[in-house]
């Protein structure tokens, strides 16, 4: 499968994600699999798209994750600042299930860092962090 196939859904107009966008991505996936002489597993992909619709259309609506029309300079590499912070926070713990004292200490350290950073940015003593390179597919309309 080619990279960034599912990313197309992040730049479609919200009303075109389901079903047109999903149908377009399915066609791309089938085409890529055919090029590799591989088969499209209808059962597995049906399960995946049911999960996708349930999670990324119903529970977390597209306006929360779709970046269409958003200025590229403010889009994070993951398209979701919480994903980046989650990785950063998880990396701060020494074990997957820290004890309460360790957990509170890490949260306190992070909150102190970010409060200080926000105050410094507001007072001109620091600059907001620069985002790294990111991939945002060109906006399309189906």
Structural account:
With 142 residues, the protein is mainly α. It has two domains: 6-64, no CATH class; 74-122, no CATH class. Helix content is 51%, strand content 0%. 4% of the residues are buried.
Keywords:
single chain, 142 residues, mainly alpha, 4 helices, 0% strand, elongated
Concise structural overview:
By secondary structure, this protein is mostly helical. Helix content is 51%, strand content 0%. It contains four helices and no strands.
SSE topology:
Layout: H1 17-35, H2 42-59, H3 81-92, H4 100-122
- Overall radius of gyration: 20 Å
Number of helices: 4
* Poorly predicted runs of 5 or more residues: none
Structural class estimated from helices and strands: mainly alpha
How many separate domains?
2
Q: Topology as H/E string? A: HHHH
Strand proportion, as a percent range, falls in under 5%
User: How many strands, what sense, and barrel or not for the largest sheet?
Assistant: none
Can you count the beta strands?
0
